[in-house]
Write a structure and sequence with these properties.
The structure is a single chain. By secondary structure, the protein is mainly alpha-helical. The protein has 2 domains: 49 residues, Homeodomain-like (Arc Repressor Mutant, subunit A); 131 residues, Tetracycline Repressor, domain 2, CATH 1.10.357.10. Helices cover 75% and strands 0% of the residues. The chain is built from 10 helices and no strands. The longest helix has 22 residues. The chain is elongated, with a radius of gyration of 19 Å. The N and C termini lie far apart (59 Å). 22% of the residues are buried.
């Protein structure tokens, strides 16, 4: 009978893999480096992940799932669309600002040749609740009638860039700047 999966070890592996990828890039990732960073034997790592592509695809799903869950935790179906949009926008911004490493990994891996078709489909499926919320705004004639995937990009792209500029020391994120950036995002989508 196979030994049950130790989720604490998996968490260690994910943290170590994220650290190594951010230092070495996807191509430079070596399983022995991840194992060493996680404080595990390389053989133990291979029990959980067959190869680096398996590991980084699983890490992508894990990080995107956690981020999507955090963002959607602010959703209240009783709120009107403008309130929902503002809560989700601020939640996404604050999580990205608080966890830039995760944001960078997700953004870069989504355009990486290591992304499997199955992982891409899983990632797209995770955004479905957000797209459904945007479709609700379209049906109410509150926001522009464009493909929801395009609207998601219109929301996420500027946030990624602002967070990167903040961490590059080019931009100080203040509460007033966040409000102004939200207004800019809202005005770019509303009818």
């Amino acid at each position: 009978m196979p030994k049950p999966r130790d989720e604490m070890k998996v968490g260690q592996i994910y943290q170590a893999a994220l650290k190594v990828v951010l230092q070495e890039g996807f191509a430079g990732l070596k399983m022995k480096d991840v194992a060493q960073a996680a404080g595990l034997a390389t053989g133990t790592l291979y029990i959980y992940f067959a190869h680096k592509e398996d590991l980084i695809n699983a890490l992508f799903v894990h990080l995107k799932q956690a981020k999507t869950h955090q963002v959607l935790s602010t959703y209240d179906p009783g709120d009107p669309f403008p309130v929902t949009f503002k809560k989700l926008w601020f939640s996404f911004f604050e999580i990205s600002l608080r966890e830039p490493e995760r944001m960078i990994f997700i953004e870069q891996f989504a355009r990486s040749p290591y992304l499997s078709a199955e992982t891409k489909a899983q990632g797209d499926q995770m955004l479905k609740p957000v797209e459904d919320i945007l479709a609700w705004g379209i049906r109410q004639h509150i926001i522009v009638d464009l493909p929801t995937s395009l609207l998601v990009s219109q929301i996420m792209g500027p946030i990624f860039e602002m967070v990167k500029q903040h961490y590059d020391g080019k931009l100080e994120i203040t509460p007033q700047l966040m409000e102004n950036c939200f207004s800019m995002a809202w005005n770019s989508l509303r009818r």
